[in-house]
Amino acid sequence: MTPAARVQAAIELLDQIIAAAEREGAPADRLIATYFRERRYAGSKDRRAVRELAYQAIRHCGPVPQTGRTAMLALATEDEALAAMFDGSTHAPKPIGEHEEPAKSGLAPQWLVEGLAKSGVKGDVAEAMLGRGSLDIRVNSLKADRNGLELPEAGEPLAAPHALRLPSGTQVEQWEAFRDGKIEVQDHGSQIACLAATAQPGETVIDLCAGAGGKTLALAAAMQNKGQLIAADTDRGRLSRQRPRAERAGAGLIQQRELNPNRELEALDDLLGSADLVLVDAPCSGTGTWRRKPEAKWRLTPKRLEKFAALQDHILDIAAKLVKPGGRIAFITCSLLDQEGADRLAAFLDRHDGWQAEQPDLPLGRPRGQGIRLDPFHDGTDGFFIAILRSS
Question: Which domain, by its residues, includes 301?
């Protein structure tokens, strides 16, 4: 592909990404993978360059652009070499019209920028949300020790006791240690969140939004494969992806339960009032993960945000029924909005007598409300809100 053809390919991809964002369709990385599966002629350098252009445009534009072309024009206004690619040659974008308006630059749609600012996310902290995500791994303590594990690349030890940071693009999945279940890819912030849960051997633990099991596996390692660990979710497909990961990791104590939406307790009836710990890694807007999924800023609307907040309340109420006296809920969202963090914690305490918030003792993060918040600028992690609720 010529450089100009790469620009046109990025424009076509951006059109798909914008349309998917507005209708809650496939994420950008999946759209990009599909795009190039259908274009086998594109080499690895072409794919990498087009992907980079598309993500650069997503990060640059604040509100949702009208088209992929207007998004790319926004980049071209600051890059003369890129603007020169709009020359109308074969497979290239047509020349820039005299009255064409580029998309608006910025962090995100204005309503969301204002919501983040009210949540204390502005300036350098806000800008860091659209940086590049790191590649972190967790050494699986069921099979290995961080200090003694030999890897093709040593990695940088991080604050979490089993965390290592590797150069972006490292093909971890090709390593023997990954195939043997000695390591898992997991953001450092996610590992810190699991530390807050303080899961112990012999406890009864429920991961109420287990998904594909990243945090479930970390809990299993903390429990040393001793006790009862229930991985529950309403998404059968995500749960099915957890099984081979658990087998590879040697996490034999994990039991799975598929839940019916709005009837979740039917599948958990035997566990009512018996859990030492319920982990609520609640569905959320994902504002803390924009480094990895920057198009998520275009998917969120005020109405969707309200739905996420209501769902978080619902799941926390379920968790409260599962915890035994003296037990705890670990509440986690990968969001930097107070509406999905500190506000939800306060609302829970207003609804439930006999509960109190405990400030987690963590190596990173700063207090936010009655919890702890991690962010990319201060901590070099994805953004998280983490809180512990204790039943009396």
Answer: 188-391
Q: Which of 106, 123, 142 is the last residue of a domain?
A: 106
Cβ contacts of residue 256 below 8 Å, gap of 6+?
210, 230, 231, 232, 239, 242, 243
User: What is the count of structural domains for the chain?
Assistant: 2
| Same domain assignment for residues 102 and 194 | no
Q: Is 136 helix (H, G, I), strand (E, B) or coil?
A: strand
The reply to whether 114 falls in a domain is: no
Q: Residue 129 has what DSSP assignment?
A: T
Domain limit, last residue, from 63, 87, 106: 106
Q: Contact, 383 vs 366, CB < 8 A?
A: no
Q: How far apart are CA 231 and CA 32, in angstroms?
A: 31
| Residue listed under structure tokens 């100009």 | 4
Is residue 86 one of the residues assigned to a domain?
A: yes
* Listed residue (12, 288, 365, 347) closest to 357, CA to CA: 347
58-77 pLDDT, tens digit each: 999 999 999 999 999 999 99
Entry pTM: 0.93
Has residue 219 been placed in a domain?
yes
Q: Does 314 map to a domain?
A: yes
Q: Which two tokens stand for residue 242?
A: 């957890």
Taking only the tens place, the pLDDT of each residue in 209-266 is 999 999 999 999 999 999 999 999 999 999 999 999 999 999 999 999 999 999 999 9
d(CA 10, CA 31): 12
The catalytic site residues sit at 334
